[in-house]
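Long-time lurker, first post. I've been practising inverse folding by hand and with some scripts of my own, and I keep getting stuck on stretches where the structure tokens seem ambiguous. Below is the full token string for one chain I'm working on. Before anyone asks, I'm not after the true native sequence, just a reasonable design that respects the backbone. If someone could post their per-position residues I'd love to compare against what I wrote down in my notebook.
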């Protein structure tokens, strides 16, 4: 693409770079100049204009933006119409925005004039919410740049071959079972606070609490409660364990109870604060793996913590492996929960 001052005699078919005010109105930027436009400019005494001339190997801004958006977005996504080099992408339904950040980075590294901006990965979204915008900054970009971007976006995804770089995983109406433990001196208000916090997290995700047990903070009691929950008629697809005491080791009471119930501990801890003390496990049920989350005690607060990161993925039917949890550290420093008995910043203690 050529860009600069162009004499009116050579400006036919060029794209007007900036709006021009005329005695009889105005010519808007982005206009493809035709003979009537040139006559109006000449009548106003204008001899040259700042314009862009597309060359044979250029792709016009709207066409380029539309191609990139179509290659970018996948399931449960609506792609808008192109205008002024921009295409917006919206969620068709509520769910989790799943993003292959590596392919977005690769796209934005191809050409300075070809850009994709998105929400943060694993963002919960509502129906109709904007997820991303594709913006072509100049009036055209080289065909070679567009081709390279399309190849990158349509290539094999990092974690899920064949999936688009951006999609929405809809909430799956997940049935959930909850085990809460207590000590002899535990007031009912503490259990009620955790239960309400769990309910408050499940509702926006389309998940439902279908069964619950309150037991002593004892390995055998927790193991029995887990077995009872998945064996009942309204079988949960996710089990949560809220221990009255924090889990500080994978051999602690809650993870050991998962093992005693016939399961295994996949990961103990996470690089998200608050939320460090989360436990992820699973139980073998009917030939499948039933996920179990040991909830960190900070989840009694409704504030965002690491438990939310894992819960959202499971509620959307997305797998959570240890590698997923270990990748949550970037952006994992969250707002402090005021009620924590040991704030992470010593300057705030007392």
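-- Answer (accepted) --
I ran through it position by position. Result:
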């Amino acid at each position: 693409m050529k860009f600069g001052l162009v004499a009116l005699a050579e400006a036919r078919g060029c794209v007007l770079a900036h709006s021009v005010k005329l005695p009889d109105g105005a010519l808007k930027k982005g206009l493809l100049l035709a003979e009537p436009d040139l006559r109006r400019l000449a009548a106003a005494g204008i001899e040259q204009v700042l314009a862009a001339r597309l060359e044979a190997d250029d792709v016009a801004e709207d066409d380029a933006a539309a191609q990139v958006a179509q290659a970018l977005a996948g399931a449960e996504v609506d792609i808008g119409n192109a205008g002024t080099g921009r295409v917006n992408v919206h969620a068709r339904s509520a769910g989790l925005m799943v993003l292959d950040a590596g392919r977005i980075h690769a796209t934005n590294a191809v050409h300075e004039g070809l850009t994709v901006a998105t929400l943060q990965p694993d963002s919960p979204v509502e129906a109709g919410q904007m997820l991303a915008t594709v913006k072509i900054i100049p009036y055209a970009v080289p065909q070679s740049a567009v081709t390279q971007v399309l190849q990158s976006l349509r290539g094999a995804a990092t974690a899920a071959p064949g999936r688009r770089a951006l999609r929405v995983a809809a909430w799956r109406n997940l049935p959930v079972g909850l085990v809460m433990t207590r000590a002899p001196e535990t007031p009912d208000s503490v259990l009620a606070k955790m239960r309400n916090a769990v309910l408050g997290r499940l509702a926006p995700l389309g998940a439902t609490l279908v069964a619950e047990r309150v037991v002593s903070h004892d390995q055998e009691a927790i193991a029995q409660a887990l077995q009872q929950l998945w064996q009942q008629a309204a079988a949960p697809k996710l089990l949560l364990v809220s221990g009255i005491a924090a889990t500080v080791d994978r051999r602690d009471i809650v993870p050991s109870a998962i093992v005693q119930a016939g399961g295994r501990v996949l990961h103990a801890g996470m690089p998200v604060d608050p939320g460090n003390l989360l436990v992820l496990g699973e139980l073998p049920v009917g030939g499948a793996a039933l996920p179990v989350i040991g909830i960190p005690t900070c989840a009694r607060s409704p504030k965002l913590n690491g438990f939310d990161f894992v819960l959202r993925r499971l509620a959307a039917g997305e797998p959570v492996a240890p590698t997923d949890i270990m990748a949550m550290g970037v952006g994992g420093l969250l707002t402090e929960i005021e009620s924590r008995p040991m704030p992470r910043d010593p300057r705030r203690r007392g």
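A couple of notes from the structure itself: The longest strand covers residues 208-216. The two ends are 64 Å apart (CA to CA). Happy to go over any region you disagree with.
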